Structure formats: C-alpha cells, structure tokens
Amino acid sequence: MGVLREELRRNLLNAGAVIVGFGTLRGDERLPFPALEQAVSYAVKLEPQGDTIWDYARAYFDAEEKTALLAEHARACLRRYGYSAEVMPKAFMDGETPVTEFPDQAAALAAGLAERNADGLLQTGEFGTNVRFGTVFTDAPWKKGEA
Predict the structure, then answer these.
(1) How far is CA 100 from CA 21, 41, 119, 122, 134, in A?
(2) Which H helix or E strand runs over 4?
(3) pLDDT of 66-98, one tens digit each?
C-alpha cells in the first residue's frame, strides 16, 4: 500500500499540490459515498497577484481549477490500482455562501494536513490559511492520519 501512497503523493505534488495527506473518515455521517471511507486530501496554494479583493477572488478560482485537475489525477491513479475513487460534486450557493455536503476541510483535518486556528480557520504549518483543499474519497485501505 505504501507504493500507492507514494505514487499518489508524487503525482499530486508534481501536478501542483503543495501538501498531500491520507486519512480515514469512518463514522462521519456526512460522507457523500458511504462505502468510500478513506480520503486523499491535498492543498494548492492561493497566489493572488495583488492585494485587492478581486486578486484574491481570481486566486481562489484558479485554485479551484487546480484542485479539480488534481482530483482527476488522484482518481485515475486509484482506479489503476483497482480501487474506487469519487469526488464531491461542486459546491452550490445558498444565498451568498457556498455549501457542500462534506467540507474538504474535514478531510484535511483527518489527514493531518492542518489544524484549526483561534479564528476557526484551517491553517497549515507551512502555508498558513493561504491554501485551498481538495478531497478524493476512496476505498483504498490506510490508517487515520497516515502521511
């Protein structure tokens, strides 16, 4: 199983992720695919080109595109090894707030990629809150927080 994790990590980092982790989500009632209790969690760095809100918005949308591309890399790799792999549908807007059934932040916490800061935001050791997380759900077996 270590070979799969290393291949996934290498592929995702080469394709633009800045951190990658693996965790179990067993027992979480929000799981969109109950048979897929494991997660590949990854993050891309937000890279705004300036200090305006529009620069940050563009950076967020660019990061969203990268996370979607990384999800396809992870899905292809997992399926090549014979495992199931699914990605959450895109978030929908409830008024002005994006809503998902299962937040990517929960998978990042389970994988040990980040911790909640005093403001309740997820923060990584190296990049702080300046990242966008993505998740691929799978049935590949690994232990909670296994890096």
Answers:
(1) 21, 16, 21, 16, 12
(2) helix 2-14
(3) 999 999 999 999 999 999 999 987 665 556 666
Rounded to the nearest 10 degrees, the angle between the axes of helix 53-80 and helix 2-14 is 150
Reported as a single tens digit per residue, the pLDDT across 1-16 is 478 899 999 999 999 9
Mean pLDDT over 28-42 rounds to 90
Whole-model pTM: value is 0.87
DSSP letters for 51-102: SSHHHHHHHHHHHHHHHHHHHHHHHHHHHHTT--EE-PPPPEEETTEEE-SS
Amino acid (1-letter code) at residue 33: F
The token duo for 145 is 């927080």
Handedness of CA 14, 17, 20, 24 (dihedral sign): negative
Give the whole-angstrom CA distance, residue 117 versus residue 6: 29
Instruction: Compute CA distances 64 → 5, 27, 81, 89, 103, whole Å.
Output: 23, 27, 26, 13, 14
